[in-house]
Amino acid sequence: MIRIFPSLRFTSLLSAAKPLCSVACSSSPVREPPQRASFAEAKSAPASNSLSITPKSPLFLRTPSHATPLSEVWKWHDWAKDLASSVEVSSSNSEYSLDSAILLRELKWLIEDSIVDDQLVIHKREIANDSESVKLRASLEELYDLWRQRIEKRRPFQYVVGCEHWRDLVLCVEEGVLIPRPETELIVDMVEELVTRDDWFKNGVWADLGTGSGAIAIGVAKVLGGRGRVIATDLSPVAIAVAGNNVQRYSLQGMIEVREGSWFEPLKDVEGKLVGLVSNPPYIPSDDIPGLQAEVGRHEPKLALDGGIDGTDSLIQLCHGASRMLKRGGFFAFETNGEKQSKMIVDYMTSDHQNSFSDLKIVSDFAGIGRFVTGFRL
Amino acid sequence: MSSFIIKRSRSRSLLLWQTHGIRIRSILFSSYNSLSNPSDSTDSVSASGFSSFSTRSFKTTAFGFKFSHLNQKFGDLAYSGGSNLVSTTRSLSSEAVAVAATCDGLTVERIIANQWPILDENESDWKSHAAAISQSIQVIKRRLQWKKLLVRLKVLSAELNKPDLWNDPTHAGKISREHGSLAGKMKGVMTFERELLEHIDMLKLAKEENDSELESETLKALMEMRRVSKEKELEALLSAENDSCSCYIEVQAGAGGTESNDWASMVMEMYKTWAQRRKFSVTVVDEMPGEMAGIKRATIKVNGEYAYGYAKAEVGVHRLVRISPFDSGKRRHTSFAAVAVIPILGDGSTRVQINDSDLRIERFRSGGAGGQHANTTDSAVRIIHVPTGITATCQNERSQHMNKASAMAVLQSRLDQLEMARQTAMNAQHTQSLTEISWGNQIRTYVLHPYRMVKDLRTNYEVSDPDSVLEGDLDGFILSFLSSSLDKGDEER
Ligand SMILES: C[S@@+](CC[C@H](N)C(=O)[O-])C[C@H]1O[C@@H](n2cnc3c(N)ncnc32)[C@H](O)[C@@H]1O
Question: Considering the entire predicted model, what is its pTM?
Answer without folding.
Answer: 0.75
